[in-house]
Design a protein that fits this description.
2 copies of one chain form a homodimer. Chain A has a single domain, classed as Arc Repressor Mutant, subunit A (Orthogonal Bundle). Helix content of chain A is 35%, strand content 22%. The first copy, chain A, contains 4 helices and 5 strands. In chain A, the strands form 2 sheets. Chain A has a 3-stranded mixed sheet with strand order 4-3-5, covered by helices on one side. In chain A, strand 3 and strand 4 (93-96) form a beta hairpin. Strand 5 of chain A pairs antiparallel with strand 5 of chain B.
Chain lengths: 131, 131
Amino acid sequence: MGMPQLTRNQSLVLGALSHSEGPMSAYTILDKLRDQGVRAPLQVYRALDKLLEYGLVHRLESINAFVACTCPHEHEHDHGVTAFTICEGCGQVTEFHDEAIEQRLAVLVRGQSFKTEKTTIEIRGHCKSCG
Amino acid sequence: MGMPQLTRNQSLVLGALSHSEGPMSAYTILDKLRDQGVRAPLQVYRALDKLLEYGLVHRLESINAFVACTCPHEHEHDHGVTAFTICEGCGQVTEFHDEAIEQRLAVLVRGQSFKTEKTTIEIRGHCKSCG
DNA sequence: ATCAATTGCGTTATGCTATAACGTGTGCGA
DNA sequence: TCGCACACGTTATAGCATAACGCAATTGAT
């Protein structure tokens, strides 16, 4: 369950996401990588699955898109919940972590005897520049 | 921006959701309502759009599905953030609200000079029964 | 009363997102 | 060297959502 060398497709996908200003859909990634020999959606989705598993990429559930993690090193020792602000003007995504929210959620969920596997926190709106 | 009488399609869709154990996709709702004359996805999606606007229904972004709001009366005076636990075993969805989380998020977002329009908090895992 | 604007309806067609199912190739340990 | 695990590539299909058209009913200002 470590993080092996990335394969060619995984590197291409991570590269595309890292060099992008904002989040991209799997099909947008596909388009960007056609010149480099990526032809089918599955090639992208399979790479994304691994990158998600390694914590190098996040999926934004509310917009069906993906972003490169902004602090991949920290994810090696699995920081808990990741939250995002997503600007609907310029697409800028900001990732953040907060202990207080995490603990409060843990308390609430515990009260339901619910066992958390994946937590999604996404805030859509407009960033400073987009007013 | 009030809440007028529901139209036939809106009532049918809300009824289907209310009588369901768990969340349903738009296409599942469509299937349940074919006998009652609903034939096309758009009829369902248009009804859902209005029901979401009125606060009678929530969209679960992480699973592309919809649930009836469990406290529609409270939404008349727009309670802020709604959070959900979603059991991947039995599909049970529990809606909850928490002032502390809401305020903490407000602070963090303010720090970015970000203006929130819609907040999504969804926790997937397993409920008490599904261990 | 009438016309215009608004809103919902119904239909067809289409687009976007994601996965199923199949077979190939490659590396590596028993 | 056999068998397993894993990544790859391709075709096909499933699942989610909206565009664009025209019709009908309602409302409301003139």
